[in-house]
Write a structure and sequence with these properties.
By secondary structure, the chain is of the alpha/beta class. The chain is about 40% helix and about 20% strand. The chain is globular, with a radius of gyration of 20 Å.
Length: about 375
């Protein structure tokens, strides 16, 4: 079975999920023939992904969230304006994607929440089955618990989620815990995807906190808290493109550029994890039995949902800001859900490959027909 991945390149969650699935399908005798990653201007793919994916990588311009650098939050108005102005660029990305799909001739497309992957599937109609994988599809489940007073945000996020899955035959919703079978069309609840490197770690409780932030502007909150609590050691990972590999502020505060293997080493030995409520980071901490402080990026509704779901799953505590005192106060009461989480995770070892094989078998046996007419704009 020949597979092409579409991957949203913002953050690290979808990238690490793609790495985990690539390992699974390879062990089952299948091949990821290409990985198409949607990237934003100024973003560079992490080295760990480039080194570990073991397949040709092609990047293309794709919509991304725009942050307010002064406040460290998402600016929805700027996001909409920028991407409206770049419609022509994204049309070119769709043409680029189409040429690559024709070149590699996959039997199945797997989309890790890349919006242009869904739009491509709907506009070019390549005749190839698509399977979508992300935690965001869980928000379509009728029993998902949302933050209070979030009616509008819920509909905006679910609209984007549906765009990523246009024409998909299957949506696999990654979940912290088992949930009842959904009646939503083609939606299946599945365990998290964790890289083998995470599963091989031997966790120990050290004397430092590990911090991961999706945008470097959030570091101001970390520095402010650190000035009040210099006795607590912090190792922070950020995405600042022009930063040194390691920036030592003082004896107890260090910033590191995103580096997959290095991040995992620090997670293995940390006392607790502080993260901007990204699904993947919380899952890794739960697998290792580490308490988590989830700090959703302001105005980032998906992360607010992750924090609610993480609380219900026993991951740890949540805060609106990087006030690590919330975590230090919580630690004496923490009870790890590690055992239950690992049982749930093990169910995915065969489930993902089984789902992909089933979709290919159910699709039409004829060779895919590759349309050459652009139906986008």
């Amino acid at each position: 079975m020949k597979i092409v991945f579409f991957v949203q390149g913002e953050g690290r969650g979808h990238l690490t999920q793609a790495l985990a699935l690539r390992q699974m399908v390879q062990e089952a005798g299948h091949q990821v023939v290409a990985v198409l990653v949607g990237t934003a201007e100024g973003r560079v793919l992490p080295e760990f992904f480039v080194e570990q994916i073991k397949a040709p990588i092609h990047t293309f311009a794709s919509p991304n969230l725009v942050y307010d650098s002064g406040k460290g939050c998402i600016n929805l108005i700027k996001t909409i304006r920028m991407h409206t102005a770049r419609a022509g660029t994204y049309a070119q990305s769709l043409r680029q994607i189409h040429e690559l799909v024709k070149q590699y001739k996959p039997e199945v497309l797997v989309n890790f929440y890349e919006v242009l992957g869904g739009i491509y599937n709907a506009t070019y109609r390549p005749g190839i089955p698509m399977v979508c994988i992300a935690h965001q599809y869980l928000l379509l489940h009728p029993q998902f618990h949302f933050p209070k007073n979030s009616w509008l945000d819920r509909r905006i996020v679910n609209f984007n989620t549906r765009l990523t899955a246009l024409g998909a035959l299957k949506k696999l919703a990654l979940s912290f815990r088992p949930m009842p079978t959904s009646t939503y069309p083609a939606l299946t609840i599945v365990p998290p995807l964790l890289r083998r490197e995470v599963q091989q770690l031997q966790p120990a409780s050290g004397d430092y906190m590990l911090v991961y932030m999706t945008h470097h502007s959030l570091s101001r909150q970390i520095r402010a808290w650190h000035r009040e609590h210099p006795e607590i050691r912090l190792h922070c990972f950020w995405d600042k493109a022009d930063a040194a590999e390691e920036e030592v502020v003082d004896d107890t505060l260090t910033f590191h550029r995103i580096n997959g293997p290095k991040y995992l080493r620090f997670m293995e030995g940390c006392r607790a994890v502080v993260t901007t409520a990204g699904f993947e980071s919380v899952c890794e901490a739960m697998y290792l039995g580490k308490p988590v402080l989830m700090v959703p990026v302001p105005k980032h509704f998906e992360q607010a949902c992750n924090a609610v779901d993480g609380l219900l799953s026993g991951a740890g505590a949540t805060s609106r800001t990087f006030d690590l005192s919330v975590l230090t106060d919580f630690l004496p009461y923490y009870r790890s859900p590690q055992a239950e989480f690992r049982v749930w995770h093990r169910e995915g070892s065969y489930l993902f490959v089984k789902e992909l094989e089933a979709v290919v078998q159910l699709s039409q046996p004829a060779s895919p027909v590759y349309a050459d007419t652009l139906a986008w704009g």
